[in-house]
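## tool: complex_structure
## caller: assistant
## args:
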Amino acid sequence: MINIYEVAETNKMITEENLDVRTITLGISLLDCIDSDLQRLNEKIYTKIYEAAKDLVKTGEEISREFGIPIVNKRISVTPIALIGGSACKTTEDFASVAKTLDRVAKEVGVNFIGGYSALVSKGMTAADELLIRSIPQALSATERVCSSVNLGSTRTGINMDAVRLMGEIIKSTAEHTREDDSLGCAKLVVFCNAPDDNPFMAGAFHGVTEADKVINVGVSGPGVVKTALEKVRGENFEVLCETIKKTAFKVTRVGQLVAQEASAMLDVPFGIVDLSLAPTPAIGDSVADILCEMGLEYAGAPGTTAALALLNDQVKKGGVMASSYVGGLSGAFIPVSEDQGMINAVQAGALTLEKLEAMTCVCSVGLDMIAIPGDTKAPTISGIIADEMAIGMVNQKTTAVRIIPVVGKGVGETVEFGGLLGYAPIMPVNQFGCEAFVNRGGRIPAPIHSFKN
Amino acid sequence: MKRTIITVVGKDTIGIIAKVCTYLAENGINILDISQTIVQGYFNMMMIVDTSTTSKPFGDMADEMMALGEKTGVQIKCQKEEIFDKMHRI
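## result:
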């Protein structure tokens, strides 16, 4: 039987170390909503999502109460809208009307984000894909809860450089469209290489076409728990360090698995996956960077950071895999800047640069995340940053992403405030040298060879 | 059997256990096990109870226990056993 010390340990994790279930995300297929009439399409989408998700928030709260564990977010992901709207949407305004429908239903059922305003263009763009991408600035400025993502490349297809170039412009334009809110629109827009079909985390969540009609995916978290566990093994060798992370990750993931199963049973929706991620929040003590510091680094970004992060990421997976029957999504440590107080401190101290962050993304999920850059950064430069990150994902057969915010009217040294879970960020300097001629070549970067690994 | 863990944490005062037990008895909830320690000067009690015999919805019970705790100056939590079981047992 459970003893008092075990109970105390679990409750200490919840009350003092910010252990929580970060998100229950209900994936909903909209493939059966496709219609050639725009109004009918919007009605069908609204009805399908509303019917599927009307009890989601209530169920999440109930589970949270039964187990005494916070479930921070309840969210929805849907089939990429470029596929759903292709036949009805003839203009960018048409696509934006679908975004508004998503926003409306998200508010109605009470979820804080809805993901899937997406296009998958890793090899080429259809007319609908391109139209959806061009509608993103409009869609994100006219909605509050809609998240958008675009998959620009994959290990098997290479990188669609036409789309990379376009996304540089779209990110700039989204920043401009939402300039009143410190370019907040860009915080809800992410580009991917090797985007997974079952990611429960925003802004990149969408419900892949390989998925069932509905599915429950759960994202766990708990950087604070890992950090506290590591405080007890200061000065010990790497074996002890790794074992400690692994055991902690196991415990954290078991909670996610439990919540996922419970939600799946209560909503009568199949359980998809648990995403084993260490996802930080701006709350003090809920930081991935603090874990790196606890391992022995003065700041995240100091020499040794990439090794420490690689180790952390691997042990989290090793511990988590056994704790859950199905693992998927992004699964790894997230290193967003604005959502992690330790990362913000590192940037402010001058320890962490964009280039170091890029190196860190080679060994962890997911990519350059929530990074504020000067508003006058040129579109081709943003495309260049995206292309670099996509190349890392393509060659290393991993998911990488870019969620970067060129804050209109602000420059290096200033700070931008997004509020809530999105946090705040110091504007980081960007390499000033040009890459226009490279980005503007057009076409695709071919898929890499998978032999002769060196 | 539906097992629930009740934890009581706070400054030690007279009648904490009595109040919790009275509430449980009134609602037809059987106590299976009680253990108690003092951690860093704080009263720390864990009860394992069987909630299959009560007609009270879990959420109401949790809320009422929490209110009882606030009145007594301690923190009372009700959680289903599975969360501890999953975390500490393979």
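## assistant note: Residues 3-77 of chain B form a domain with the Alpha-Beta Plaits fold (CATH 3.30.70.260). The CA atoms of residues 3 and 82 of chain B lie 8 Å apart. Handing back to user.
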